[in-house]
Amino acid sequence: MMVLSACRVEPDILSRQHILLVEDDADLAQTVASELQDRGYAASHLADGQDAIAAVHESDYDLLIVDRLLPSLDGISLIRQMRLESIHIPVLVLSALSAVDDKVRGLKAGGDDYLTKPFALDELLARVEALLRRPRDARETMLRVGELRMDLIDRTVQRRGRTIDLLPREFKLLEYLMRRPGQVVTRAMLFEDVWNYRFAPHTNLVDVHIGKLRRKVDSQGEPPMIHSVVGSGFVLRAPG
Amino acid sequence: MRLAELSRAHAFRTAAIVCAAFGAVTLLLFGFIYWQTAWMDMERIDRRLINEFTILSRETPAALQADITTHYGADLPRQVFAAAFAPDGMRIVGGLQSPPPGLAPDRTPHEAEALRLDERGTTLERVRAVAGRLADGKLLVVGRSEEDLDKLRALVVRALALGLLPALAAALGIGLFASQRTIARVRRVNQAISRIMQGHLSERLPSAGGIDELDQLAGSVNTMLAEIERLLAEVKGVGDNIAHDLRTPLARLRVRLEHARGRASSLTELDSVLGRAIEDLDQTLAIITALLRIGELEAGRRQSGFGNVSLASLLHEAADLVAPLMEQRGLQFQLTLSPDVDILGDRDLLMEALVNLLDNALKFAPEHGSVGLALLQENGRAVIRIADSGAGVPARDRKAVLDRFYRADPSRHIQGVGLGLSLVAAIVRLHGFALAMHDLNPGFAVDITCSSGGE
User: What is the CATH number assigned to the segment(s) A11-132?
Assistant: First the structure.
């Protein structure tokens, strides 16, 4: 077993979420692991699928980041085997294969999300965060973030008593953000989850939609709730 | 080389076979002529012998004797003869010493050996003769020397032999000439092929300008070579364009990083340089990703995501997606729908194509212009039309814009990696749909003609 970046021994080690990175590109793995540690996660790295299976049996991980192509046991087989053994750790699949079919295969095998190489670190971190944080209970009928309220039955949105009229797509977009308050969501995540398309538009399509939504949610004089995060995406945060 | 040897062997074998066949036919023909000559002559002689025998046999003994003496004794060339013998075989009159042994007295012509008798003495000759007993028991023999017949036969045989040899030689010569010519042509073709294999793709196979099989083959191969040459040139052009389009942002990136290393005086400054460097890298990566996707689509491996797609709802979603963008640019945007059609396709890819085309329309439409997205019915087929009020792509560039890395504007002031349309073309091809561009006067439109799901 090769552990390139062992977890730092810190008192809060037990409280930190532990991520296992299974990636045979040592350079990339080290950079990603170090980035994850900087963000407060404990990160281990293995280069091989067989070792990863053993490691998953030995200790509890909160998330696996698995490369699609690995030396002895490839990523898809690794996930399939884990799922067969009823190990339900969330898995983010990484792949240099851009084929959409491949993406579908990765998700079908039991992967929870899929990221194509080359990826932006911010994109990876946003997805890691999304996988680690459980979205709000889908059965909730009322979402609240600060002074913003969304009634999922009446399909109405109010901010401090002011009713906000939203088009169906805008409603869906805001619902997605409200279920992930304080969490950075990327353009690609929005495009995949709100619009259900798996290609990356070259244009600033998502920005324009967010812009429209922002003008409705944050009207003049109100402290802004929808923020842009440079290089990553957007975040909905309660003011103050 | 091996091909040349084979063809040479083949050409020679063909020549030899033709020559042998020609010789055999000639021999048969000559045999027939010989047989006809010899047999016809024999028959004529036999008829004459029987005729003369009949005349002589009807004469009185005295007249017979006189006739044999006068007629046959006076035959100077000694060709014909007649003789009469007593029943005991003693010669009475005529040019034979004794009855030819073995000659049956059956009044029909036979071959025999006869002892001819004349002033100079006796000679043994091969003859054709008729013998028969007369009423008084005498044996009458009428015959003819076969010497001249043999001479005639020998003459025919010699003539035939003399004729056959030059004929065979001529056949062989012609065969060799023809095969040599073929071999020479094949050799020239082979030389051309080896030059092509050495990389001289503009080389063509030589053609004799005729319409024979070899010329037809050379013609087909030349057409194929022209197509290969065109494709290779295209690939090379694409490669050059890719290299160029990748080099531009990379060169910028390099200069930027080098400059920052020397000059950056604060972390903020360095951070902004790095931010722009990452943007440059993203641009290069986007180009590579798009190229890989086009390659994947063009290989036609992506039909697994196919399902029933409602065109009306697809267009609705596309309109929903781009409408805010149009609004932001101050463009009029209109969605027009005719009755809905279900088609078999990949929803993701079709949306990607539509977004690309709408994005293009948005870029090409003039300020305060308009963009339209419409579902039409033309000749029973569903047509998706993306129209804008701009000048569009000039007619001469329409095919080229579908190629990888082409942008209508040489100054390239319009943003985009230039792969959008070729990606669209690849998606349309994957679906078996047709892509067309035309002028609307005023305006420009791109049509995707779909085959309906039922087909």
Answer: 3.40.50.2300
Three-state DSSP state, B392: coil
The 10s digit of each residue's pLDDT in A62-94 is 999 999 888 888 888 999 999 999 888 999 999
- The domain defined by A142-236 carries CATH number 1.10.10.10: yes
> pLDDT for B76-119, tens place per residue?
567 788 888 888 888 888 888 888 888 888 888 888 888 887 77
Please give the structure tokens belonging to residue B33.
Answer: 């002529």
Q: Write out pLDDT tens, residues B332-366.
A: 999 999 888 899 988 888 998 999 899 888 888 88
Query: In sequence order, which residues have a C-beta less than 8 Å from that of residue B94 and are 6 or more positions away?
Result: B68, B69, B72, B81, B82, B83, B84, B117, B141
* Sequence ranges of the domains in chain A: 11-132, 142-236
Q: Rounded to a whole number, what is the distance in Å from the CA of B195 to chain A's nearest CA?
A: 40
Q: What is the DSSP letter of B70?
A: I
Token pair, residue B274, equals 């790095």
Contact (CB<8Å) A104/B351: no
Q: Which residues of B touch A (CB under 8 A)?
A: 275, 278, 282, 285-286, 289, 292-293, 296, 301-302, 304-305, 317, 320-322, 324-325, 328, 348-349, 351-352, 355, 359, 416-417, 420
Structure tokens belonging to residue B124: 């043994």
Q: Searching chain A, which residue's CA lies closest to the CA of residue B360?
A: A203
Cis peptide before B442 (omega within 30 of 0): yes
Domains of chain B plus CATH, in order, are 1-203 (no CATH), 213-298 (1.10.287), 307-450 (3.30.565.10)
Nearest CA in chain B to A198: B348
Residues of B in contact with A211 (CB under 8 A): 324, 328
Distance from CA of B430 to the nearest CA of A (A): 14
